[in-house]
Amino acid sequence: MMFTEYGFMERFAAARQAGFGAVELLYPYGLDISEIRQQLDDNNLDLILVNSPVGEPTRNEKGLACLAGRQDEFRRSVDEALSYALPLGVRFVHLLTGVPDPDLPREAVEDILLENLSWAAGLARSAGLTLTLEALNSRDVPGYYISTQRQAADIVQRVNSPFVRLQFDFYHCRRSGENEIETFVTLRPLVAHVQVADTPRRSEPGSGELDFEAIFDCLKATDYSGWVGCEYRPAEKTVAGLAWIDRYGLRTLMRNP
């Protein structure tokens, strides 16, 4: 989503030059692992997060974890995600839950999801990384099974594994109608990773409706010491839009936590 004005393999150096100590790579599939590893090493970057495969792109699928009759495919997708995550030193794999058949009872969908997550948690434990669940608001991703932060937290609690945690996105939180500060404070014990973008355009912090002064104060007040992923679409060029980092006094936090 960021540094798209550069060729893909050039983005790592651009991120490092801009001051970032780590990057997220949502969909590495089909890319050369050794080339990515070389870019990370050359630019002294950590790769923090990848997404699990979406499923069938031609059907605009958004993940497989809650889809009926696709359990074997889901397991293969997790194996594929780990085949990239492990050699690249990834800490978090975001498991996309998907858009289930609307005619399937919610209880049946949830049973599939919980069974799949429990299986995947065992792999995560062996691999030494964490799986995350993220709520994607229903305005941007209609039909996505987990659409609110509290629903995501409920699933995490029901899986009851330290290797399945919450990925909290302040943009999606506001877009789903939840109070972002109150919700984060309540769910903080379950949060492993944070992402930011402003509403409504999903652009740089400080460009829209969210009070990022309060958001960053909240992260500090709740002793959140993990990474904050910049999952937004720059309004213009990426580097030109990074002035918010200094505006909120975050420059020193761009290094490894």
Q: What is this structure's SSE topology?
A:
Blueprint: H1 11-17, E1 22-24, H2 33-42, E2 46-51, H3 71-85, E3 92-94, H4 106-127, E4 130-134, H5 149-159, E5 164-169, H6 170-175, H7 180-187, E6 191-196, H8 212-221, E7 228-230, H9 243-247
Parallel strand pairs: 1-2, 2-3, 3-4, 4-5, 5-6, 6-7
Helix pairs in contact: 3-4
Verbal overview:
The protein is α/β, with parallel strands linked by helices. Helix content is 37%, strand content 12%. It has 9 helices and 7 strands, in the order H-E-H-E-H-E-H-E-H-E-H-H-E-H-E-H. The chain has helices spanning 11-17, 33-42, 71-85, 106-127, 149-159, 170-175, 180-187, 212-221, 243-247; strands at 22-24, 46-51, 92-94, 130-134, 164-169, 191-196, 228-230. A 7-stranded parallel sheet has the order 1-2-3-4-5-6-7. Helix 2 (33-42) links the parallel strand 1 and strand 2 (46-51). The longest helix has 22 residues, at 106-127.
* Strand portion: 5-15%
Q: What strand order characterises the main sheet?
A: 1-2-3-4-5-6-7
Succession of helices and strands: HEHEHEHEHEHHEHEH
Distance between the termini: 23 Å
Mean pLDDT: 95
Number of helical elements: 9
Structural class based on helices, strands and sheet pairing: alpha/beta
Sheet having the most strands: 7 strands, parallel
The low-confidence runs, each spanning 5 or more residues with pLDDT under 50, are none
Task: Report Rg.
Answer: 18 Å
Q: How many strand units?
A: 7
Shape: globular
**Helical percentage:** 25-40%
